[in-house]
Amino acid sequence: MWKLSGLLLAAPVLWPQSPKYQIGRAPLDTDLKERDISVLAGGRGLPPGSGTAAAGKDVYSRRCQKCHGNSGQGGEEGPALVGGKGSLATPKPVKTVGSYWPHATTLFDYTRRAMPFNRPGTLSNDEVYSSSAYVLFLNGIIGENDVMDAKTLPAVKMPNRDGFIKDARPDTSARGATKRAPVPHPAKSGP
Length: 191
Ligand code: HEC
Prior knowledge:
Layout: H1 2-10, H2 29-35, E1 50-51, H3 53-63, H4 65-68, H5 104-114, H6 125-138, E2 148-149, H7 174-179
Antiparallel strand pairs: 1-2
Helix pairs in contact: 3-6, 5-6
The site of heme C (HEC) has 21 residues, from helix 4, helix 5 and helix 6.
């Protein structure tokens, strides 16, 4: 019986989010903070902390190497993080952080959000900065002792930063549509 009264006592605190269905509760600030981990390309959202490749070598060997190989070449359990430079315009493009990713900040966001693959969310911010630094170092993009933090990481120039074109959509504005020549519908354009 005490269990039931415990629930009843707790009820006013966990007010339902949906008055209609009486389920859920309004998110607390701490809930939102835990989930608000997006880092944008320009670096917005990067947390305090820092790391170097020199420090990241140890993090990498303990937390990443098993799947991504001792020098980031990839393995049975994880893709390559290094290499592929100059391969993008060939028939066999090798897309890695080094050859393909336009922003170094994505490496922080992705690693913090999703890596290690088997235990995401278990790295400290310093460990994310330093393992990111190590991956950038393995790609020859930064030096071993370059400090990566909320200021320096967005300033790293990735080799493929200018390799993307802006998506022109939406291209369906009414004005544009009237100007364009009509495109024959395949079903109607036959004999
Ligand atoms: C248990 C295996 C495993 C471990 C440990 C691991 N990863 Fe991964 N990693 C993966 C797999 C699998 C993928 C591909 C995931 C996908 O495509 O959805 C991946 C993808 C990535 C990518 C994206 C690569 C790309 O170009 O798409 C990065 C960056 C990365 N991992 C970094 C790390 C770092 C840094 C660590 C250590 C802190 C780490 N990973 C630890 C398995 C692992």
